[in-house]
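User: Structure tokens for this complex, please. No commentary.
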Amino acid sequence: MAIVDKKLSIRNRNKILVGVWQDEDNLVAAATALTHAGIHIHDIYTPYPVHGLDRIINARRSKLARIAFFFALIGLTLMTTMIWYMSVYDWPMNVGNKPLRFTPSWSPVMFEGTVLCTAFGMSFFFFWRNRLVHGIKNELLDIRQTDDRLIVAIETTADMDEKAILTMMKKNGAIELRSFHKGVQTILK
Amino acid sequence: MIHDSILRDRLVTGDKTPSDVTRDILRPILNNPSKSWKIGFTLSVIFLGIFGISLLNTLWNGIGVWNINKSVMWGWDITNFVFWIGIGHAGTLISAVLLLFRQKWRMSINRSAEAMTIFAVICAAMFPVFHMGRVWVGYWALPLPNAFGSLWVNFNSPLLWDVFAISTYFSVSLLFWYIGLIPDIATIRDKVSSKVGKAMYGFFSMGWTGSTRTWARYELISLILAGLSTPLVLSVHTIVSTDFATSLVPGWHTTIFPPYFVAGAIFSGFGMVASLLVVARKVMNYENYITIGHLDAMCKIIMVTGSIVGIAYLTEFFIAWYSGNEYEQYAFANRAFGPYWWAYWSMMSCNLIAPQVFWFRWARTTPWFIFIMSIVVNVGMWFERFVIIVTSLHRDYLPSSWVMYSGSLTEVGLFLGTFGIFFTFFFLFAKFLPVINMSEIKSIMRNRE
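Assistant:
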């Protein structure tokens, strides 16, 4: 299966400089140094979450919490409407002469429906936002990035000094340097 | 500022590197099944067969083959239902509640506990579904239009709340488990050599690359799902307890039931997690990941929740006397000194007295002893549900309806059979998916505060 959005594929981007790290402290130091030098880091790939990296590469804050609240409101509205329609409007049922409308006994079902809608709505949003799709072709810069290597990817532009970037990466503990352009990988000294 | 902790014991021992973690945890997945796995799996399938035969007998002859009657209309079936649903609660507690409390020791055990939740809920669902008798019209429990044959469902009934609560709990737990699995499935995808394996793990890894942006959102969604799952797990067993508490049966009609049931669920769930992990860490060589420290922490939770349950037992007894209600007083006197005294005292000794041994450090740090105690806890919790259900129903307001009840062979077969379902799923899980969350373990290896 193809990539969902071809523009996002690393194959269709400019030349990418790749640095490989083994130590997370060195990686954090390198990412900080590169960003301070005004270099835009395309992304960092790690086998486990490294806290603070998203702030270092200036990733935008996720809207997931607001999305969750939005789906919670939808869930609550749907469930309230459903119960009202079934047990008040369409077929009012007298159960032991208890009140028909908005009784506390509605709250468990309203709550469960709200949680269900929030969890699934938010998760599908999460999958969509991260382009996580069943069967999608994965694009790895290094097969070990899901095992024990930490990878920094920098997309080059015409005004970038590639040599200076590579030197900076090496100085900050990169154990391997590579470039990636149109599907061809070159190992750099 | 990040500090390396010098006060806390390391959560992963043996000076492991991230690649060691991958290698150790993926060993059972990437290699052929071990002899112990084959033996365990075969035994599970045999028990699954027992379930199949018992279920066939139930479906063919009707639930008349169970010994339930018009007084004890809930017997082994609902006992087993509450038993399994209770076991399912520890998974969510470990993955959600302990995540919210930032308890990092949960990371070695959350994956298997979440799997246990899902399998236990499947086992639990079997009982109310087949207790319906005419299971083919089971869909009447869903809110379907009157034209389908039933009336709209009754939203005042706790039994309907159960339908919503358990299905939501199952779905959200499965989602939480799957999202947690995606990074590890991606690791297997990049390690496995067979074509089929690559295709399967590739399909389920959803193109995961480990991008920083994805990790940031992943951590946020885990936190929000944990925030949602925490009230959810409390609601599910609260609703199960209202199946009893909203009725007028002596011994059931008490407001203490919701917290008492939730504490009991966590207690029995941790009992099952301890049983599984004490064996898994030995058989799968995970001693460096599921350390004595983890077992120690689990035992402390077992002891605390066991004590909460014990206090609930005593409070129930006191309130029955204090209420001045003779039916309530009789129900409790009958529990302790009536014909089912042996069940009551088994429950008291297994749930209240036995876990007190965990005050001693030796007991909390000796795996074989923890294994025995975890079985004791589960036996005790099964008896708790049996006592609540059977002793209250067999003698209520009308002495002419008093009867004795014991499970039939088919009922016993169904219960033993659900262990077949549970362990068959668990063995398949241990063979094809990582029992320990690799990505989370890699993030805590440095023991940072």
